[in-house]
Every structure is written in C-alpha cells, then in structure tokens.
Specification:
Layout lengths: L1 H22 L8 H16 L1 H16 L1 H10 L4 H15 L3 H24 L1 H4 L28 H19 L8 H8 L2 H9 L5 H23 L2 H20 L1
Helix pairs in contact: 1-2, 1-6, 2-11, 3-6, 3-11, 4-5, 6-11, 8-10, 8-11
Length: about 250
C-alpha cells in the first residue's frame, strides 16, 4: 500500500517538476523541486477536503448535542457502561459518529506522510530514476530538501506549531474530545507537536515542509467551516449563559 501511494506521489511530483522546468524560469531563492512539493501538498490536501469537512461537521454536530450529552453523564454517572450505551444511542439518533471521521483523517495523513518519507529517501525509485544530483533542491535557507533542516527553529518548529494549532482548535470545537474516555488521550495529543519537532529535525526537510503546509490548510478549512455555521454562535451564547447561571446558583 505504501509503495503504491509513494509511486503515485512520486509520479505527481515529477509531473509538476517537469511542467515547471519546461515552462518557467527557476527562482533564485526557491527551487522547482520545492515548488513541486508545495503544489503536490496543495493537491493532496484538496483531495482530502471531503474527509476534513466530514470531520469538522461531526465536531460541530457533537457540539450541538452537548447539552444532551451532559444530561446523560449526570443521570448515569453511577454506571459508566450504561452511560456509554446511552451515549451511543444518542449518537445514532442524532446521526453523529465523530470517531470514524477522526480516524479516517488520521489514517490518511499517516499513510501520505510515510509514503512521502519513502519518496524523499529513495528519489531514484519514485521520482528521478536518472538521479536527483543534477537539479536544485533548495528552499530559502535550506540548501537541500532531501536532507534535514539545518535550523532547529525552521521547518521542524513550524510543523510543531501548526500541529499544535490544529489540535487546540479541534479540542475547542469538539466537546467530546474534552470529556469522557477521550479526554486523557487528547490531553496526551498536546505533546505530539513536541514529538513532531524532535522527529522532523532528523528527517528530510521536504517532509516538514509538506506537513506544515498541510496542517495550515486543514486549519483554514476547519476555521472557515466553524465561522460560516450560524448554529455555532447560538451554541456559544447558550454555553456562556449556562456558565453564568451555574455561577449564580452556586452563590
């Protein structure tokens, strides 16, 4: 599977590179190889847009039924199994299934990332059978995208920050990620950006370039969907009113 995806990505990258090389003049600060990675990232992210949209819709729908979720948690807190069963019945009744959409998005990202790792490490097999030595592979401060970024605060740090932003926004818009059995797991996910930073420091710089752009594009799509959904404003106002009422009742 990974070899198949790597082959597709390699052919796509080579087609983009050849198209650029045959029709334009290579800029001084960024190579056609880097531009090919950027364009490929945009295309791959656009292909994954339906998954991203589905994931965000599920998050928004879960946020909409949060009052019902809270009621179930209070009513059946004495028995976690019954509470979980009632939650599943609520998800089915409301047509919400956040787990599947989240898994699909994560699986897609992991498959593409590992496949691209093979492309970067074996360019002769997947992209340039004749050899990659004769072409430029620079990207601003990086002289060779097939080698690690020489600056620790460069692409690896940008990858970490972009992933952190995506995780925070997901937790903000999806209440299920902050409650129940998923809460502890998602708190652990906040450490993933640090893991990414340490990992990408030793990998070809083309990988963090891909992942940073991909994360930023996913975040933009998620924010746009959240802002254009008029129901979110009502939900947020309702949530603020509930907080005020709870504080008043405690006094």
């Amino acid at each position: 599977m990974l070899n198949f995806i790597a082959s597709l990505l390699g052919k796509l990258m080579r087609w983009i590179y050849d198209s650029l090389a045959n029709s334009a003049t290579e800029p001084e600060s960024i190579s056609f190889y880097a531009i090919a990675i950027i364009i490929m990232t945009i295309l791959v992210t656009l292909i994954a847009v339906p998954v991203t949209i589905s994931q965000q819709k599920q998050a928004e729908n879960t946020k909409k039924i949060k009052p019902k979720m809270d009621e179930i948690q209070k009513k059946f807190s004495y028995d976690p199994q019954i509470m979980q069963k009632k939650m599943q019945e609520l998800y089915k009744e409301e047509g919400v299934n956040p787990g599947i959409s989240s898994c699909l998005g994560m699986i897609f990202q992991i498959l593409v990332l590992f496949a691209l790792f093979r492309v970067m490490n074996d360019t002769k097999t997947f992209v340039f059978p004749e050899g990659i030595e004769s072409i430029r592979k620079d990207f601003y401060w990086i002289s060779d995208l097939t080698k690690p970024d020489p600056l620790w605060y460069g692409l690896p740090l940008l990858t970490s920050l972009s992933q952190f932003a995506v995780t925070l926004f997901s937790m903000k818009t999806n209440p299920q990620m902050n409650e129940g059995p998923m809460a502890s797991m998602n708190k652990t996910m906040l450490f993933l950006p640090l893991v990414f930073f340490l990992t990408f420091r030793s990998l070809p710089a083309g990988l963090p370039l891909y992942y940073t752009l991909s994360s930023i594009m996913r975040l933009i799509i998620m924010v746009i969907m959240h802002l254009v959904n008029p129901k979110n404003k009502d939900i947020e106002i309702r949530g603020e009113n509930e907080k005020i009422n709870n504080k008043t009742s405690k006094k």
